[in-house]
Amino acid sequence: MMEWREQSSVSSEEAYLEAQRWIEAVTKKKFGNADFRSALENGVLLCDLINKIKPGIIKKVNRFPTPIAGLDNLNVFLKACGKLGLKEAQLFHPGDLQDLSTRVTVK
């Protein structure tokens, strides 16, 4: 596993592409024409990924196309990462994958 360093010469775009290639290779599923965030925001691909790494760690993936289902999948994925020994500081927050362009902000 590559550790991300601020002074790294790898651009974030290259890091995203490398991660995407790895996720697609492990899951045998394509991102399609979705960008990195969009492809992962419903959590289905991440749940499939972790089930390939440790079969059965996630019993049920919620495939309903709703934001709540996506949040549920992300939380289950993050919990599974914890079971595999990842620390909270090494993980993202579910809100990191939300589409900010459609979020309503109150001023």
From TrEMBL:
Checking Pfam families in the record gives:
CH
Taxonomic lineage: Eukaryota, Metazoa, Chordata, Craniata, Vertebrata
Q: Which SMART domains match?
A: CH
* Signal peptide positions (record): none
Q: Which residues form a coiled coil?
A: none
Q: Which InterPro entries match?
A: Calponin/LIMCH1 (IPR001997), CH_dom (IPR001715), CH_dom_sf (IPR036872), LMO-7 (IPR029978), SM22_calponin (IPR003096)
SUPFAM superfamilies per record: Calponin-homology domain, CH-domain
Record's protein name:
LIM domain only protein 7
The superkingdom of the source organism is Eukaryota
**Where in this chain does the record put each Calponin-homology (CH) domain?**
13-107
Classification via PROSITE patterns: CH
